[in-house]
Amino acid sequence: MTLNCIIIDDEPLAAELLASYAKRTPFLNLVGYYNSAVNAIKPIRENQVDVIFLDIQMPELSGLEFASILPKTTRIVFTTAFSQYAIEGYKVNALDYLLKPISYDDFLRSANKALDWFASQMKQETWNQDRFMFVKSEYKLVQVHFDDILFIEGLKDYVKIYLDHNKQPIMSLMNMKKIEEALPKPEFMRTHRSYIVHMPKIHMVDRFRIVFGDMFIPISESYKEEVQQYLDSHTF
Question: Model pTM?
Answer without folding.
Answer: 0.63
